[in-house]
């Protein structure tokens, strides 16, 4: 054994002979493998032959011979049959010419070509896999040592060069097989896009081939022939196709069709990548569709009459809007075009609401006021003014309702169609805020809406329903820019609710406050909370005082039962609670109280100050009311009701009580003139006239007679006397109150006044902020100071630039600030 | 490369097949060893998973995949046996197998080079390392043997210089360590003259040693 084995190792001289013998063996084996007769061949024998050649350092020769063999095989055996499949028709189509055949024939010839190419490729792969197995020792030792591409890689390159890039012999063009392949596949895809059924599997096989072939033997992943050749052509053809499709949709269809067609195309292309071509192209083709079908004509589709974005929003075409959102999101992450279109719609629709309300408002208001002036008939005189007011209030509620409806509409749309997109939410919020703030009365209306709900609206509603109302109110508050104006109105309305006991639920009031606290901040709600605190404190005071009086022992039938509200001056909007426009504090304070009342006031004051030394109590006659027991004596000589003594308990405003008490001291049938009453009571003229109207003109509680006896508002010169002949079926009568208790829309004058007051307040706030900033910064340019002030105030209101300038001037005058001379830009300095 | 420990070496995948070694149970292929075609009952799953060569031989559509037979007439049956032993158990022994009693075993200094050559042809990297280790140990005592020059001849004709840890290094190393004794011998001088690759390797090694 040793002999035979050792002789095997001797390197003989007949190396060439050895090589030729072994190559002969291998070559015939290669032929057999190509002809699918491998099962006759011994793997062991062939492997050993190539092993020996390599051991004897003849690897290079073997490698080259195998290559040569493959090249010859392609030229002699493979290409001729493929060329046969390339018909003139296919060449024509590839050249961009028109084929003279039907689509069906075209498809069949195309498929035949693909099948032929596919078969030769698959054969090649099978053969080369077997060849590689046999030549593996060469690959591992020779190729690795000499940095040569493996024989398999080389053979793939040969297929690329000798089949795909083989020129068409009979054609005068420069066409190669690859051109035909691209053209056929694109033609088939084109047919599928038109709705035909094609052999996807066949195309997929050819695509696999292109994915397995590379530009060079380095087999760089980015240089797959699929990417470097086919995909480029595919994307180019697709771009043209979608470009044309979009133009024809623009010409012949509506936005709705366009949306659906585009979506369908996305799905088709995605499916095509999965089943027909390669997932490598998925994003790129999507990009092409995005650019051609969406971006290029988006504005035109959005603007389409009757189907564009306006119509979609108007008619709640949620499906269209969802599609639109999806498509726009694909091409623009900021969704700019959609955002702009939505914003424009919100502002348009919102302005419509504003306009409609302003129009109704102005057409109704003066007419109603006139009614009030001229209403003469006794029963009709049932307060035409509140009627006017309630109409105006209805307008406010209507405005709020419509705004909320619009908000609901867009909210629903946002949830259903816009994927709760944050960018769009911000944009919508901004647009809502824009048109709401364009409406001059937004603060007042929103506060009225809340007022209305807290008074009546929430009656009989469930907690969830109330929550919903509060949510809506909160949403609206969020939009309002001038929070200070809103606060002013809210305080005014709240004061009325509290003092007149109109609030439906203290609990809901508190909820509303805490919501505003979250939404706007502590500073906003402190005073409101103070108002509630005062109310609670007052209740304790009232019952404490009662106990105190009872314990004094000397029970007096004439003792007046006192219910009191002690209001902290700063918390309550005194100006807007007063019953007239008199601003002078003196007049109001100096109402002359009757002796009984003064005694009562002193008694309470003594009780109140026992534990609260140093406080000042001011009695506000324009607020509150009193129950007065009146006795109407029997009128001699009269029968029936008038023939008996009548007792009534009449509830009148505090001023009413002061006036009526004057008549207690009067001799029978004597009268008092308007001037006399005013002189004795010091009640402001307008309040006096109003209260006398209640007591001497309106029938319900006409306990005084007026001379002259007409329906006009009492004025100086009129005389008043005790109406002995007063009758009423009710024992307890509530004198009709003309105004005060009802929160209504302000008239133009009132409104102007509110704004003035607000501006005055703003001026002070701006002063404070400027001084605070300058104190900290010492020196600041005009520009920076303005920016800083605006940002600090943004939570409360948007300051007027003119006002800010005036405030600065005033601060300079008052020597808080000075201008820095010779500064490049206008600059201010703080003066300590 | 895992260090090869000649005795008690275990290879997780190898030991599992110990009991199948030349066991006709489950056997689905037969390997014929040497000119006398001594049959060896083998298993596709073991051969195919442990050795790329057999994987190709039985899976590529050639005759062997159909007949389930493969014969190695030109190779030493003992060397083949040792390779199979390694494939099934992860190691092989110096002792000849009783199954092959009819065949004389390879000479001592040819045992490992032949295992190495087969391992190289079959592309079993780990076995090449094991054979080298065993050969290196053996040479520590047997470098003086008269068969060493012939052994070197065979090593150089059945290996290539691709592997850095090739068996050629083992040989050159052994010769270099004992160059005073060996290079005086006629057969060695003849060997140097005859096998150019060996001469080059030896000169390079000695030059390196001097530095």
From TrEMBL, chain A:
* Assigned keywords, A-Z: Isopeptide bond, Ubl conjugation
GO MF terms here are: ubiquitin protein ligase binding
Keyword Transferase appears in the UniProt entry: no
Return the annotated region ranges for Disordered: 369-389
PROSITE patterns xrefs: CULLIN_2 (PS50069)
Coiled-coil residue windows: none
Name a biological process GO annotation.
ubiquitin-dependent protein catabolic process
Give the Pfam families listed for this entry.
Answer: Cullin (PF00888), Cullin_AB (PF26557), Cullin_Nedd8 (PF10557)
Domain Cullin family profile per the UniProt entry, residue ranges: 441-696
Under the heading InterPro entries, the entry gives: Cullin, Cullin-like_AB, Cullin_homology, Cullin_homology_sf, Cullin_N, Cullin_neddylation_domain, Cullin_repeat-like_dom_sf, WH-like_DNA-bd_sf
UniProt xrefs under PANTHER family: CULLIN
Q: Which family does it belong to?
A: Belongs to the cullin family.
Name recorded for this polypeptide: Cullin family profile domain-containing protein
From TrEMBL, chain B:
Q: CDD domains annotated for this entry?
A: BTB_POZ_ZBTB_KLHL-like (cd18186)
A Pfam family reported for this protein in Swiss-Prot or TrEMBL: BTB
The record's InterPro entries line, in alphabetical order, gives:
BTB/POZ_dom, SKP1/BTB/POZ_sf
Q: Please, which domain of life does this record's source organism belong to?
A: Eukaryota
Q: What is this protein called?
A: BTB domain-containing protein
The organism is: Cudoniella acicularis
- SUPFAM superfamilies, alphabetized: POZ domain (SSF54695)
Q: Which residues form the BTB domain?
A: 27-96
PANTHER family from the xrefs?
A: BTB DOMAIN-CONTAINING PROTEIN-RELATED, BTB_POZ DOMAIN PROTEIN
């Amino acid at each position: 054994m040793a002999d035979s084995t050792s002789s095997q190792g001797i390197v003989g001289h007949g190396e060439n002979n050895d090589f030729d013998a072994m190559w002969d063996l291998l070559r015939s084996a290669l032929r057999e493998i190509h002809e699918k007769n491998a099962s006759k061949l011994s793997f062991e024998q062939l492997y050993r032959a190539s092993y020996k050649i390599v051991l004897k350092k003849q690897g290079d020769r073997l490698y080259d011979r195998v290559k040569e063999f493959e090249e010859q095989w392609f030229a002699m055996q493979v290409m001729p049959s493929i060329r046969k499949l390339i018909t003139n028709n296919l060449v024509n189509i590839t050249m961009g010419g028109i084929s003279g055949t039907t689509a069906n024939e075209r498809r069949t010839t195309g498929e035949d070509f693909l099948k032929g190419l596919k078969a030769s490729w698959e054969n090649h792969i099978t053969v080369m896999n077997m060849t590689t197995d046999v030549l593996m020792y060469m690959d591992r030792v020779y190729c690795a040592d000499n940095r040569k591409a493996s024989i398999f890689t080389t053979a793939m390159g040969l297929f690329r060069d000798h089949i795909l890039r083989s020129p068409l012999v009979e054609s005068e063009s420069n066409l190669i097989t690859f051109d035909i392949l691209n053209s056929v596949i694109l033609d088939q895809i084109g047919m599928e896009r038109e709705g035909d059924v094609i052999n996807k599997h066949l195309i997929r096989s050819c695509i696999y081939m292109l994915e397995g072939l590379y530009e060079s033997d380095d087999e760089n992943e980015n240089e797959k022939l699929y990417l470097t050749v086919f995909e480029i052509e595919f994307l180019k053809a697709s771009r043209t196709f979608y470009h044309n499709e979009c133009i024809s949709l623009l010409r012949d269809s509506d936005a709705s069709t366009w949306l659906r067609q585009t979506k369908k195309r996305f799905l088709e292309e995605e499916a095509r990548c999965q089943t027909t071509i390669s997932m490598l192209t998925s994003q790129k083709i999507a990009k092409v569709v995005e650019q051609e079908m969406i971006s290029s004509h988006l504005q035109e589709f959005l603007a389409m009459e009757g189907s564009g974005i306006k119509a979609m929003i108007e008619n709640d075409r949620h499906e269209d809007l969802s599609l639109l959102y999806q498509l726009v999101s694909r091409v623009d992450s900021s969704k700019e075009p959609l955002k702009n279109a939505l914003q424009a719609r919100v502002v348009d629709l919102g302005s419509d609401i504003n306009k409609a309300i302003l129009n109704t408002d102005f057409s109704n208001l003066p007419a109603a006021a006139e009614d009030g002036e001229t209403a003469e008939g006794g029963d009709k005189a049932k307060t035409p003014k509140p009627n006017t007011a309630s109409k105006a209030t209805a307008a406010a509620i209507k405005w709020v309702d419509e705004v909320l409806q619009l908000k609901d509409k867009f909210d629903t749309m946002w949830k259903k169609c816009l994927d709760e997109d944050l960018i769009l939410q911000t944009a919508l919020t901004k647009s809502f805020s824009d048109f709401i703030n364009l409406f001059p009365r937004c603060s007042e209306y929103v506060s009225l809406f809340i007022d209305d709900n807290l008074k009546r609206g929430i009656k009989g509603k469930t907690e969830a329903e109330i929550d919903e109302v509060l949510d809506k109110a909160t949403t609206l508050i969020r939009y309002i820019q001038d929070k200070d104006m809103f606060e002013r109105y809210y305080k005014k309305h709240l004061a009325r609710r509290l003092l007149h006991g109109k609030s439906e639920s203290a609990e809901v009031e508190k909820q509303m406050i805490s919501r505003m606290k979250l939404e706007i901040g502590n500073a906003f709600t402190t005073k409101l909370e103070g108002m509630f605190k005062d109310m609670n404190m007052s209740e304790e005071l009232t019952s404490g005082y009662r106990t105190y009086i009872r314990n004094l022992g000397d029970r007096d039938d004439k003792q007046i039962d006192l219910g009191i509200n002690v209001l902290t001056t700063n918390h309550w909007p005194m100006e807007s609670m007063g019953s007239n426009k008199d601003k002078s504090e003196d007049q109001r304070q100096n109402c002359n109280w009757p002796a009984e009342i003064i005694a009562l006031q002193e008694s309470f004051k003594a009780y109140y100050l026992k534990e609260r030394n140093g406080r000042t109590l001011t009695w506000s006659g324009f607020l509150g009311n009193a129950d007065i027991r009146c006795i109407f004596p029997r009128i001699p000589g009269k029968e029936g009701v008038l023939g008996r003594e009548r007792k009534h308990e009449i509830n009148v405003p505090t001023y009413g009580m002061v006036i009526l008490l004057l008549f207690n001291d009067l001799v029978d049938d004597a009268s008092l003139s308007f001037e006399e009453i005013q002189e004795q009571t010091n009640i402001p003229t307008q309040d006096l006239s109003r209260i006398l109207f209640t007591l001497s003109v309106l029938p319900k509680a006409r306990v005084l007679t007026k001379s002259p006896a007409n329906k006009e508002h009492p004025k100086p010169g009129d005389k008043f006397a005790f109406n002995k002949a007063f009758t009423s079926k009710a024992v307890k009568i509530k004198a009709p109150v003309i105004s005060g208790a009802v929160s209504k829309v302000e008239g133009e004058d009132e409104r102007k006044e509110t704004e003035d007051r607000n501006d005055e307040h703003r001026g002070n706030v701006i002063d404070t902020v400027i001084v605070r900033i300058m104190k900290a910064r010492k020196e600041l340019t005009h520009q920076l100071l303005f920016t800083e002030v605006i940002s600090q105030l943004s939570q409360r209101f948007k300051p007027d630039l003119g006002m800010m300038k005036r405030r600065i001037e005033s601060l300079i005058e008052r020597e808080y600030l000075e201008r820095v001379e010779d500064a490049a830009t206008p600059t201010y300095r703080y003066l300590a | 490369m895992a260090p090869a420990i000649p005795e008690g070496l275990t290879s997780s995948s190898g030991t599992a097949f110990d009991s199948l070694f030349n066991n006709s149970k489950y056997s689905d292929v037969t390997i014929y060893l040497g000119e006398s075609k001594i049959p060896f009952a083998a298993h596709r799953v073991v051969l195919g998973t442990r050795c790329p060569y057999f994987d190709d031989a039985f899976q590529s559509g050639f005759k062997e995949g159909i007949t389930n037979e493969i014969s190695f007439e030109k190779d030493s049956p003992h060397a083949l046996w040792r390779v199979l032993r390694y494939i099934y158990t992860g190691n092989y022994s110096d002792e000849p197998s009783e199954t092959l009693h009819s065949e004389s075993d390879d000479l001592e200094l040819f045992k490992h080079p032949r295992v190495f050559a087969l391992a190289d042809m079959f592309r079993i990297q780990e076995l090449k390392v094991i054979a080298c280790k065993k050969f290196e140990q053996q040479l520590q005592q047997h470098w003086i043997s008269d068969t060493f020059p012939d052994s070197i001849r065979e090593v150089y004709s059945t290996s290539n210089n691709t592997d850095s840890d090739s068996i050629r290094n083992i040989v050159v190393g052994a010769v270099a360590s004992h160059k005073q004794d060996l290079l005086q011998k006629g057969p060695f001088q003849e060997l140097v003259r005859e096998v150019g690759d060996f001469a080059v390797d030896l000169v390079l090694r000695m030059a390196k040693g001097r530095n």
